[in-house]
Amino acid sequence: MIMVPEPDKEARATDMPVKKGGLNDLEVVHYAYKYFQIFKGLVVDNIFSFRERNESREFFKERKAEDALRVIEVELNFIYEVLYTKVQVVHSIWGYVFRVIAFGSILASLGVFHFVTEKNGLNQFDVGVTYTLLLGAIILDVIAFFMLIFSDWTFASIKDPDSDKGIIAMIFKSFLHFKRPWWRIPVCENGCHEHNVLATPILFRRWSGSLASYNLISYCLKSHPSRIHKFIRWPRVISQKLGIGWCYKIVVGVIKAALIAVKRFLSCLINILFFIKGKLIAFIDFVVQKIMLNIPGLRYIIEKISVAFVYVRTYIMGSMGINDLLDQILYVYREPFTKELWEFIFEELKNKADYADDPEAAKRISAARGEWVLTDSDTKIDRSSLLQYFVGGLHFW
């Protein structure tokens, strides 16, 4: 193994001093881009130096939970876009050139079709479809152009926003302000404590803002899980801000009444179909029983065919992943990310980081699971009496 000495800190052009206190919106993007450039090697199991590790740890020790969340979500957004999108191609010189050429080609096609092409002998429906396709392509390119301008990659390239007091800088700062985490207090079911949940509007969010949950008890009992938080919809919030909440209530009332009527109709239709199905199955069973009594050995053949059909169905559903897909649809549900949960996670990580003074201690803490809680709690309590309940729980599952 060849040990290469670490470069001096001044040799890195991307180094930024660790700022004390809160971060503004552009600093969040800059720090996230810096750590993205450093730690993107984690995807391929790269090993980093102690200086980079200590620098990252000192940075997050100085941060509050919300600022740390903002930096992390921007950094993860960079990683996601590099892995799963064409962002690095789009934000290159050739990407800009090809995008301009493509947009110009669409405009030229629309101009030629509108001003040059003789459309008297063409079907009007075909003409309308052509206009729709060309205008749709232009609209999509315009949307992509605005997404390109207001992406985090563009903000990461802005060096000194305070030196520019123009309208462009004001627009950029306002857009970054809207991309901050939005916290709201939803209606909680079952009388649970109120939580601040992440409810950033979909146009400004960098990730889904929710966590997938799998309820093992619901899966074993074959019951559908229920959500904990009930969201206040954004149209309702906007209507209340505009002072037209009464209009929103009327529209929602009409929609709910229509949905209830449709639900009742479908319920009656399903009951009728189930009744017909029961009668049909009873008739088929009666006919099969009569035939089986008159033909010896037919029962044995039908039973073997049924067993083979069940086996083939189980094999096909298992090999194609249909069972897992159905389990995900029925028993996996998403709950919004809560501010209290993140603050708890972040404070626990900061406390553990205080003990990770060397790589061995950091590895031991990272590999710890429940024993960390037992070590950190009162060890004088006799837990041997809980062993019987633990064994009983294992037998139950």
TrEMBL record:
This protein is called DUF4220 domain-containing protein
**What InterPro entries has UniProt attached to this entry?**
DUF4220
Read off the PANTHER family from this record. Answer: OS01G0798800 PROTEIN-RELATED
Q: Which domain of life is it from?
A: Eukaryota
According to the record, the segments passing through the membrane are 96-116, 128-150, 268-288
DUF4220 domain residues: 21-219
Q: Signal peptide location in the record?
A: none
Q: Which UniProt keywords apply?
A: Membrane, Transmembrane, Transmembrane helix
The species is: Corchorus olitorius
